Amino acid sequence: MADYKTFGFTDEQVMIRDNVLGLLKRVLPQSKIAELDAAKQEPDEAFQALAADGWLALPFGEEWGGANASNKDMAVFIEALGYWHFGIRSAYMTSAIYGGGHLAHHANPDVRAEMLPKLIEGKLKMAIAYSEPESGSDAAGIRTRAVRDGDGYRITGQKIYITNAHVADYIVVSVKTDPDAGRRGLSLIIVDTKAEGVEIRPMNSLGTLTSRPNEVFLDNVYAPKEYLLGEEGGGWPMLMRGLNQERLLLAANGGGASLRCIDVARDFARDRVAFGSKIAKYQAVSHKFADMHNLAETARLAVFHAADMLDAGEDAVMETTTAKIVSTDNNYRVADLAMQVMGGAGYIEGEMQRLFREARLGPIGGGSNEVLRNVIAGRMDLNAS
């Protein structure tokens, strides 16, 4: 990672970055990423290598063999994954952060004891299914229903844009257990992807081809009562609980991906000759690198400031939301500038084309940046008299 600044990282945090990048260089070289991208296959070999080295345990408590990592620890780790490849970062977060977080904090103790060790070992993968065709950022506007059936629930509905559902063993599904109660009628239930009535269809996306979105159809799917997370009707607070960390880590991914764009474009500019000189010497090109640096630096400052705020126990909604917007917007701008530097060499094929395609998801996923701007505006108390 060229010009990588550690912002006062601890020795352990620097080791996290160095060790995981060393692992990924060995098990997931860029040539392998290109093959997986072309085949639309997930980086499972690298995912299993992360599991074997204990990285899936990073965010969990010591009672599960975890490291009880801080928010800043996780931001350092996710930034490194995002630098190397979007797909491995996404595979990690959908299973360990999203699915694993629900298991650790909200699952029935017996279900937690059964599933969480397997997840940490890489033997069980999870995903989350919240978005629907008519409710994306509006998490409370879902229509998927869950009705009581003996000692369990019958679930019927449709989910869309569900990342990595096609390779998950279980998905956490948001449902309405009381359709007339608004947010208080929202519940979260674990669904076995092999259960009768579950159909999962991968979708054709612009980018993220190694971490694909899916349509999920649920036709009278049975889930035992033990698979209910928390209390019936208690889904909304559980969704809100993880938002700060989700926004922080999506922002960290944007920072890492920006650094990767700069490195790829700089390697090209140092070698490419036009009109008798390396193009890196031309001001029109070098100023683009200065702009990319400024964008990446601003993103990373926002990320690690938000992480410090969270770890200090502060109400960091403004900081994590700001970091997510700034970092993902900046990542896309960096990718665009890097593409312009490389011209046809970036546009036709290769790593820069993939980085550009992947960067476009950032301002959309994890709550669109337009909706997140509403969050910031609301916190600014603009309607006060």
Q: Any key phrases for this structure?
A:
385 residues; 13 helices; four-stranded antiparallel beta sheet; alpha+beta; four-stranded mixed beta sheet; globular; single chain; 10 strands
Describe it.
The protein is 52% helix and 14% strand. With 385 residues, it is of the alpha+beta class. Strands 1-4-5-8 form a 4-stranded mixed sheet, with helices on one face. Strands 2-3-7-6 form a 4-stranded antiparallel sheet, with no helix packed on it. Helix 4 packs parallel to helix 8 (243-271), helix 5 (86-106) packs antiparallel against helix 6 and helix 10 runs antiparallel to helix 13 (369-379). The longest helix is centred in the last third of the chain and has 29 residues, at 243-271. The protein starts with 10 loop residues before the first helix and ends in a 6-residue tail after the last helix.
Low-confidence stretches: none
Total beta strands: 10
Helix count from the secondary structure assignment: 13
Largest sheet: 4 strands, mixed
Strand content: 5-15%
| Gross geometry | globular
Structural class from helices and strands? alpha+beta
How far is the first residue's CA from the last residue's CA? 49 Å
Q: What is Rg?
A: 21 Å
User: What is the ordering of alpha helices and beta strands?
Assistant: HHHHHHEEEEEEEEHHEEHHHHH
Q: What portion of residues is helical?
A: 40-55%
